[in-house]
């Protein structure tokens, strides 16, 4: 039996959506001894959410505090996606950013509440599909999409990758598919309710090991080039992606940190966390990684300055 759903092993059917997922068997084919990857950031638009969502002196904020913060001055925050080039496994996307339709009609993809709360903005041609085309890449060229989590700014454009394998933490998938009032929890089920090749991973499997400061990681190809790290807290099944570059590691941290300064001890926490205790544990793993490997790259989920200073490609 599947330990999460209680269904027979091999298939997870979620009662609140039509989409189904299957467990991912690792290591995947395509790995290569000593393989390294390159990573290209792509900014797919911005949100201008209430400031307390990113910076809250008191930690996790309640609904009233968030509503009060909607009246404060707002600053746009970037919404990134990442293209990983693996020398033998091919092209891999991390998160999809905002759907192309957000440039003209954000309500259709994001819903009225999210549009009101987060004030999305996207220029024509800024979506991930347009940026991939500029690189000579079509959606069918993307072998797989790795999701840090399924919040609406990370999964908005799933519909554009019907030929890719879509990989998400099993805890995240189950929660996103069944939670009540999903849009108040950061999810938009219409974004991922497709009969696509969704695959889930478990951080309780025999394939899971520690890596550096991270307690639970999964080596995707068995060659050390891409590891998934369990970093829950922001969402129930949040995961980060550890990439091996030529001379250092890079951690795509998703929303485990919103801004780079949160890697510093004593920095304010974000106001939006599913589980503050787990968030702090994951944050501590990232802080220890930065302390032990100061040359490593750790992305900040929505940090304007970080992405303004980012190279076109990390290699």
Q: Kindly, what is the distance between the CA atoms of the first and last residues, rounded to a whole number of angstroms? A: 42 Å
Decide which structural class fits the backbone. Answer: alpha/beta
Silhouette: globular
> Domains counted in the coordinates: how many?
1
Number of strands: 14
Give the strand order, joined by hyphens, for the main sheet. Answer: 1-2-8-7-6-5-4-3
* Range of strand content: 15-25%
Q: Write the CATH homologous superfamily.
A: Ribonuclease Z/Hydroxyacylglutathione hydrolase-like
Order of helices and strands: EEEHEEHHHEEHEEEEEEHEH
The main sheet comes to:
8 strands, mixed
Poorly predicted runs are: 1-15
> Fraction of residues in helices?
10-25%
CATH topology name, in short, is Metallo-beta-lactamase, Chain A
Mean pLDDT reading: 94
Tell me the CATH architecture.
4-Layer Sandwich
What's the CATH C level? Answer: Alpha Beta
CA-based gyration radius: 18 Å
Structural notes for this entry:
There is one protein chain. This protein is an alpha/beta fold and 315 residues long. The chain has a single domain (12-25, 32-303), classed as 4-Layer Sandwich (Metallo-beta-lactamase, Chain A), CATH 3.60.15.10. The chain is 18% helix and 23% strand. It is built from 7 helices and 14 strands. The chain has helices spanning 63-69, 106-110, 112-118, 128-134, 170-178, 276-292, 304-308; strands at residues 12-13, 20-23, 38-47, 77-86, 90-94, 142-146, 165-169, 197-201, 208-211, 214-219, 226-230, 239-244, 249-252, 297-298. The strands form 2 sheets. It has an 8-stranded mixed β-sheet with strand order 1-2-8-7-6-5-4-3. It has a 6-stranded mixed β-sheet with strand order 9-10-11-12-13-14. The radius of gyration is 18 Å and the shape is globular. The N and C termini lie far apart (42 Å).
